[in-house]
Amino acid sequence: MRSSANSRTLTEAETERLALRGETFVIAWSALLISFFALAFSYSRGLMLLYGDAVAHLHIARRIIDSINPGLRQLGSVWLPLPHLLLVPFVARLEWWQSGLAGAFPSMGAYVLGTAGIYRLARLWLPPRAALIAVLFFGLNPGLLYMQTTAMNEPLFLAEMIWAVMLIIEYGRALEADETKRAAKLLICAGIVLAGAVFTRYDGWIFTCLVWFVALGKMLRWKRWDSTAGGAFVLFTVMLAVAPLVWMAYCSRQFGDPLDFLRGPYSAKAIELRTATPGAPHYPGWHSMPVAALYFLKAAELGAVPLRFANLLLILSVAGSGLAAIRWRAKDAMTAMLLWLPLPFYSYSVAYGSVPIFVPLWWPHSWYNTRYGMEMLPVFALSAAFLVGLVADWIARFRPSVAPWIPAAVAVLIVANSALLLRARPLVLDEAIANSRTRIQYEVAYANALAALPPNSIILAYTSEHVGAFQRAGIALKRTINESDYYEWAPALKNPAQAADYVIATDSDRVAQAVAAKPDSLTLINIVCSTGQPCARFYRSDRRVSSGSITQK
Questions:
Q1: If 368 and its partner were Cys, which of 242, 358, 403, 463 is the partner (CB 3.0–4.6 Å)?
Q2: 551 by DSSP, 3-state: which?
Q3: Which residues, in sequence order, are bridge partners of residue 539?
Q4: Burial 192-201, CB ≥16 within 10 A → b, else e
Q5: Is 0.85 topped by the overall pTM?
């Protein structure tokens, strides 16, 4: 009789999982349709290359296949490699690299997965109507819809966080039900997702560590060490331990320092030291975690709701998470609280990690790194769903006919909220537009000057600052000698006229210093200047041009 009951229970569980899979596919296809609408909006208005970081991500991916020395050494040391590796198949097409369309495809895929994942996560505790609240709040956020049309990595990391939490909770439930084979598969999948998070963002390192402790706690509670789940846990641990070590080994091999991303010349701290004005006040939140937390939360709130409802959103999110933790503690709702991790992480990063966040509402009344607040979207969405589900259950005790309308009413409010945010322009889009005005004007003029150079000519230039000009002009990176060409760069700086047909020096960069040190056989032929940007001086190498080194098409 017990065997028959267990078999029936397993069959019912499998039927529920199949039904949930069908629901998830509907959500995913709906998200994909919305994603394409957002892509059409961004592409038609030229919004995909507004972020300088998006241009830089595309640059790193492109130089892996298009440079004098192509290969993985072109990944650099500061930004983690997974987003760039995902971009490589798409940047191989020159037109997609130029337009920024190459950056949209991985981000759109991540958006669809993240939206489907938030539904799966909410459905662990809530009925479909309440779970849809989480989907609508997350999937209709205009800021996220814009970011998923760019090469920025926020959509990818959000999907990784959501799926990691969902898989770990499912793993715990499988252990409880003594479904050890299923638990093992879920844990390995979680390990793959978390390894991806480690190679996506550095907050993924802390997130992964905490998830490992949660997984360990579940294994200790249910004591399945002598099963396939026990072996999977060992493999899971090895995967998570090796992932950051691989990156540090890469940095040690390529740059001579395993922590080059933390203390190298292109790290956040090094950039702050180079750009800080002596005697100027520090950015808000510097060495103050409470102030840093306020700026991070305000960026998160303003990216999710209009200003008048910002504080209310935080209060409702805390209430929803707290009530869910009380009611569903035995059903792993506490594990979902891992989604609150961005708050302490960015509070510390702003205070002590040289990562400022500016919001227009507060001093210095500008935009900078507001996109980091998007990492709170999953917890805002899930907390809202928790709160709606709990309120609907409570009302159902007294007015059963009214309870089903609660999720519907909240859904209408969420759609209206998204429409208001879109009409006012999303915070992250405001930042992109405000911070790109002078850069784009300059890069367009720079690109026009590049396009006037003879085809196939070799160009010596520092490309990291304004590679967007080369991108717009469709200049193959293998035609340039730049700072990522480790073997050619230093010798070229010693004798610029001998190294390249054309030399481009911007104010005080390494090439400008090289030209000042050895100007022989260089003739100034063009100057490109723009307000708020350095001047780019174009020199022709009389030595190489006169010797006929340029191959004309």
A1: 358
A2: coil
A3: 503, 524
A4: bbbbbbbbbb
A5: yes
